[in-house]
Amino acid sequence: MNVGITALATHLPEKRITNEDLSRTLDTSDEWIYTRTGIKQRFLAAEHESTSTLAIQATAKLAPEALSGVDLVIVATATPDAYFPSVAALVQDHFKLQAAAFDLSAACAGWAYALNVAAAQIQAGTSKKALVIGAETLSRITNWEDRTTAVLFGDGAGVAVLEEVPEPYGFKSFVWGTDGSGGKHLHSGATAKTLPSGEALHPYIVQNGREVFKFATRVIPEAILTATRKAGLNVEDLDRIVPHQANARIIEAAADRLKLDLGKFVVSLQEHANNSSATIPLALDYARRNNLLKKGDIIALAGFGGGLTWASAVLVW
Ligand code: ACO
User: Fold this and answer.
1) For the chain, what are the domain ranges?
2) Whose CA is nearest to atom 49 of ligand 1?
3) What is the pLDDT of residues 268-312, one digit of tens each?
4) Considering the entire predicted model, what is its pTM?
């Protein structure tokens, strides 16, 4: 059975913060942020908003028929409203869906992980139609006095509807992986004071940017290459690559390693920064709005993040 994406919607909060805005409160500049990352602005949730309200607002933008028959809701998030109930349960209740619902934690690779899980459930016959949501309020776990992380992240949400699609459309392959030994390079604490390896956990994001950069420039091209081969294709067959939007230099390095034209890579981080699990749906939506995707295109998605985790999927759009 072929499973594909039949609808997509996204939502960004209204509050827009530019690099210039940040440079008024932090020892940073638009020049530093833009040349080192490619980011120009980010959107942050207002006090009354949360990960679930962003997820619900994105889902509400889907046509009513897209929601009809949904029997599975997976929300990839690193910033759930609560330990429980899950954000997915809040979405299920809001739309009164007859659905199983749960959150999935794989940081910025979370949405690509969730696509893999949902597609497998549909192929196994456990579910027929799934909402796969990536939603984050990273602003709530950002140390706004730490210029090394505060400039990188934004809030937002995106949702895809997954169900059976005819040949030749839909997902052709998935790959995913984890290297927990790298967890110390990117973390944000919750109930424990330290990681098992002893590093202190804080309630906000702590990152070794250089280590994450090295990891990302290695796993992104590897994951795309493996997923493409698994789909029986060559990387040259890809029409579009939609990578996680953390740093434009990571995307450039991936294009270089894969010997692919950078123009095939969707770059949208200038508009919304890094939204962790919401980033790839936001980048897909950006590509769609800017006529960078057409029906039948062969696309590779690729995410990486805290864990450390990575995932890639190849699909015919
Ligand atoms: N403004 C001005 N100067 C800054 C800023 C800032 N916002 N941040 C750091 N600097 C300074 C540093 O203090 C350092 O100064 P020093 O040389 O005097 O010590 C200098 O700039 C260079 O710092 P580096 O950390 O070496 O800068 P680098 O070029 O590595 O860029 C960055 C940092 C952007 C974080 C990069 O390493 C990166 O993008 N890494 C990957 C991050 C990533 O992908 N994170 C997403 C993970 S996904 C998830 O799961 C959340």
Assistant:
1) 3-164, 170-316
2) 305
3) 999 999 999 999 999 999 999 999 999 999 999 999 999 999 999
4) 0.96
Q: Which fold has domain 170-316?
A: Peroxisomal Thiolase; Chain A, domain 1 (3.40.47)
If you search the block for the tokens 């908003």, which residue do you land on? 49
Global ipTM = 0.94
Asked if domains 3-164 and 170-316 share a fold, the reply is yes
CA 231 to ligand 1 center in whole angstroms: 35
Q: pLDDT band at residue 189, thresholds of 50, 70 and 90?
A: confident
Q: Cα angle at 291 between 15 and 274, to 5 degrees?
A: 35
Atom nearest to 151 CA in ligand 1 = 7
Alpha-carbon separation of residue 287 from 34, 208, 299 (angstroms): 21, 30, 11
Q: How far is the CA of 163 from the centre of ligand 1 (A)?
A: 40
Closest C-alpha residue for ligand 1 atom 36 = 209
Please identify, by atom number, the ligand 1 atom nearest to the C-alpha of residue 148. Answer: 8
Q: What is the CATH number of domain 3-164?
A: 3.40.47.10
Pocket test for ligand 1, best of 149, 185, 211, 212 (most atoms within 8 A of CB): 212
Region of 251 please: left (phi>0), alpha (psi -120 to 50) or beta.
Answer: alpha
At residue 171, φ and ψ (nearest 5 deg) are: -75, 135
Ligand 1 pocket list (CB less than 6 A): 28, 32-33, 36-37, 107-108, 147-148, 151, 186, 207, 209-210, 212-213, 216, 246-247, 274, 276, 305-306
- Other Cβ atoms closer than 10 A to 22: 20
